[in-house]
Amino acid sequence: MKIIDFFRDIFQPGKTYKLNQRLTDSVKLQLDIEDFAIQMAINMLVGLIAKCEFKTYIKGKEVRTDEYYLWNVEPNVNQNSSQFIQQLVSKLLHDNEALVIEVNGQLLVADSFVATGYALLPSTFSDVMVTTFGNNFTFDRTFSMGDVVYFRLNDRNIRAMLASVMDGYSQLLSMAMGKYKRAGGRKGIAHVDKTLSGDQKFKQQIDDIFGKGFKEYFDSENAVIHLPNGINYEEITGEGSKKSTSEVNDIANITKEAFARVAQAFRISPALLQGDIADISTLIDELLTVCIDPLVDIIQTEINRKRYGKEAYLAGTYLRIDTTCIKHIDIFSIADQADKLIADSLYNVDELRQKIGDTPLNTWWSKGYGRTANYNWLADKPPDDSKTGGDSG
């Protein structure tokens, strides 16, 4: 739910409402913490998936055709593939759903739409709006489910569930910040000798001094305040007026806990979201397994279902998102493993060069699969048992 919809449901049009300042500050604080943590999580996942290569296959053979160019280079005239994928994944993670339409051979991510669901018939999408460089364009046609690529992340919007959890942390953080302000605030006692009753001029003078004069005095780095006769001010000093590290630690710990809940909601390691770099390789492997791969599977499955279909998919014509591009590869650290992969005939030289970001050699030997002497049983025909000691009985 968007924030504008949230307030529209609460407040009735045509009526005037007075908002409590502390309440609005608390709501703003909650939205700030929640939005900041969520945007950090989304930006991390979006950046990683944008690095992936969308590989296309025809009858089991990897090819680079128009479909490959569409997903990896230029989906439409106004976006490159990185911008397009970032917008798509952001919408999916933020709104729990995303809609991609194809118009004149171009792929566009919808900013808003109205979905109408049916049990046994294809659902439809109307009022589809696309925003380009701040300009909104709404299509005057209704798209059928078969004409679009529609992604849905979860049955329940994780952000709606997260909002109630974040509310508790926001209240705790608000209390901690209030404690921090009070710990460093200046306090004093004012003695007023004259009675206020009946003297409106003196009463107004008192209100101006305590309402405006002392505020400016306390807010200024260097200041002098004039006190009329009958008013004496005594500053209270002591340890109670000094800030301590405990208040700062309270704020840091509560914020850290709030970020941890957001990370868990998006299946990200809290340490990774908070920027801890210790054991980064293990954290990335965990992120790939529990977060990136399931998310990528949702995307590629829907693409294959809509843009390829059952017959083509079963014949080996499909799209696959390669997530191996996410991890940085140090060629010197993988030299032994690369040699083993070639010796096992799992990859050829060109395939490994592509994995590490180098250009394929495109030679006959770099495209071939090596066989070492230890693996010479890998032949075009199965071995003859009578010649290899097989049981002849």
UniProtKB/TrEMBL annotation:
Record Pfam families: Phage_portal
InterPro entries per the UniProt record, alphabetical: Phage/GTA_portal, Portal_HK97
Protein name (database record): Phage portal protein
Organism of provenance: Caproiciproducens galactitolivorans
